[in-house]
Design brief:
By secondary structure, the chain is α/β, with parallel strands linked by helices. Among the domains are: 84 residues, Winged helix-like DNA-binding domain superfamily/Winged helix DNA-binding domain (Arc Repressor Mutant, subunit A), CATH 1.10.10; 111 residues, D-Maltodextrin-Binding Protein, domain 2 (3-Layer(aba) Sandwich). The strands form four sheets. Strands 3, 4, 5, 6, 10, 11 and 13 form a seven-stranded mixed sheet that branches. Strand 1 and strand 2 form a beta hairpin. Helix 1 crosses helix 4. The relative contact order is 0.14.
């Protein structure tokens, strides 16, 4: 039994007349009559009673009509789903984000924009640092990733720079530099941090350590490194408990952690935190292309004055 046999049967049942059904199907009446008889032989039941002016369904025909319509509808839904998937309008997208993603307004904004534009695409997110993210992207465990860095594209990947932001210093709330230096909103010259102990974070998997060292060297001193933290949130907790200071992206001000004061910095214009988008170079997924297009458009709009 083929799908066309079901369509023929349903059309004849709806018309109650083989000739009219044949006209709607764009075929001749004799071949349609033959196909209906062949379907009845295959099922082993009579589906229609032949009348002088048409046909009518038997009890078996009425029962089979309901299932035939359901089968055709199910196949139709499957065909449409396949077409939507091919167009990237339906499917699944696996996204990796850095631990700081919730504090970068751009990231939740573009995710929301994508979900509104493609509501039938299910999206899952996982948090990971740069080195792990790149390996998982190369290995196909994730489809697209935000990276908290501006890097040359590793082999097999495409990296799109999206935006950058200045670094600020996180100080213990009672620290003299946070309390006594200038007005409450004044920027700190980078060189006044020369005597401080710097808390490093994500040494192996993130760029933060190198950004901090570059900022210090730019200001004329080598930083004294103290306690290390695996992630930025841990580093800020160490700041709150007085273990030292650390440099973080300005967007981390949104993490209003008790015991931490943030101050702008002077003289570190070239030291910034970056956000990039990484994808596989050979990824043919239309869903990934749609996500990249949404992100790139948002980045262009974000960069406009």
């Amino acid at each position: 039994m083929e799908l066309r046999h079901l369509r023929y049967f349903v059309m004849v049942a709806e018309e109650g007349h083989i000739t009219r059904a044949a006209e709607r199907l764009g075929m001749q009446q004799p071949p349609l009559s033959y196909q209906i008889r062949a379907l009845e032989r295959e099922l082993g039941v009579q589906l229609f009673r032949r009348l002088p002016r048409g046909v009518e369904l038997t009890e078996a025909g009425h029962s089979f009509l309901e299932d035939a319509r359901a089968a055709l509808a199910h196949v139709g839904q499957g065909v449409e789903a396949a077409k939507r998937a091919a167009r990237g309008e339906q499917g699944h997208l696996r996204l990796a984000v850095p631990p700081t993603a919730p504090f970068i307004p751009f990231v939740p904004q573009v995710i929301l924009a994508f979900r509104e534009a493609f509501p039938m695409v299910s999206l899952t997110m996982e948090e990971s640092l740069r080195t792990e993210t790149i390996e998982r992207l190369k290995g196909g465990q994730i489809d697209v990733a935000f990276l908290r860095a501006s890097i040359a594209a590793p082999d097999g990947l495409v990296v799109d720079p999206l935006l950058d932001e200045p670094m600020v210093v996180a100080l213990p709330s009672g620290h003299p530099l946070g309390r006594d230096w200038g007005s409450a909103g004044a920027s700190l010259p980078m060189h006044v941090l020369a005597a401080e102990t710097f808390i490093a974070y994500a040494r192996d998997q993130g760029p933060a350590l190198y950004e901090a060292i570059a900022a210090c060297l730019q200001a004329g001193f080598s930083p004294r490194l103290g306690q290390e933290a695996p992630r930025i949130s841990t580093a800020l907790s160490l700041v709150a408990t007085g273990f030292g200071v650390t440099l973080v992206p300005a967007s981390m001000r949104r993490m209003a952690l008790e015991g931490v004061t943030y101050r702008d910095l002077e003289g570190v214009a070239g030291v910034k935190a970056f956000l990039s988008l990484a994808t596989r170079r050979d990824d043919a997924s239309a869903t990934v292309r749609h996500f990249v297009a949404v992100v790139r458009r948002a980045a262009r709009e974000n960069s406009q004055p």
